[in-house]
Structure formats: structure tokens, C-alpha cells
């Protein structure tokens, strides 16, 4: 099947997210990116370089940003596409059409295009996973003032501990670190891992 036909099928077939992915497509096409079809998903390129892709699944739909780790992510909406495996790709998930804000989505896509135009690349060397000795200062301070959090954290598996450490370390701004810390403390106290709900 030709790429044009595959695109037609993707956007026209009956699916609970048929209308929302159509909206995302309309937003993307306004940017001038070239539409093609790769890995079973509509993919949008600039000078034959992948910039974004649109995906739909059973419970969500969204946009993949191939160099998402380089985006400023001012609204804190991006997630690692495959935690522990992908380095640069980030995913913006939506669960219903009303969550699509064209202005916000366009802002992210425009930034992704600018990064590609400038030829900015990411370091493909995988970072060494942090160990407990790499615990960020803001988390270590919490352990000093709240022994319950410290004990709960130490009761987690090493893999879950590393996920939380990485989550804090990856935050670029101090206010984001504080926001992420407040989010994860209840999860740590419940003995949950950062990504348990996706497992």
C-alpha cells in the first residue's frame, strides 16, 4: 500500500480518537511540514528529517517529538517515550479531544521545527543511571526533615529509586524540581514507582 493510502486509512478508519487525531493533523499541516508515513504512523519531516509523528492507541493519542528532550517544555507536558530506552524522543499524550489547545500545540511544534532548522543535535550517549549516591540535594534535604519519606524511599526497589532520582535530576529549573518533588512524595509514601500506572 502506498504511503498516501496508508495515511488515508489512518485518518479515516473508525476509531475512538478519529476526530482528535484529525484535529492534530490539521494543526501540524499548517506548519508546512512534509507529511509521510513511517512505522505505521503519520510522520512529519523537514528536509527529510523526522520532526514529529501522530499516534493513536487504545486509551490515548498524541504527538511524538523526535528531539523532544531538546524542547523547553514550558508547560511540563512531555514524557519520555520509553523510559530507560529512548534518549531524545518525548511524547505528549491526550486522553480526550477537549485537551487539545491549538495555540499550545502549535507552540511546541514551532519550537521543534526551529530546533531542526538550526541543526541542533542531542548527545546520543546514554547517561549512566544514577545511584543512591547521586540523590539530588532537594530530595536529600527532604529525607533529613522527613524520616518517613526516607524510609519509604529506601524500601523501594533500586530501579524505582533510580526513576525518582532521574525525574528530579532531569528538571531544568528549581521551581520544576520543587513541583516534581511535591508530586512524588505521596507516591513514595505509598510505595509506588513513578511509572507504575503504565506498567
Automatic annotation (TrEMBL):
Domain of life: Bacteria
YdhG-like domain: residues covered: 21-113
Pfam families in the record: DUF1801 (PF08818), OmdA (PF13376)
InterPro entries: YdeI_bac, YdhG-like
Coiled coil, from the record: none
Protein name, entry field: DUF1801 domain-containing protein
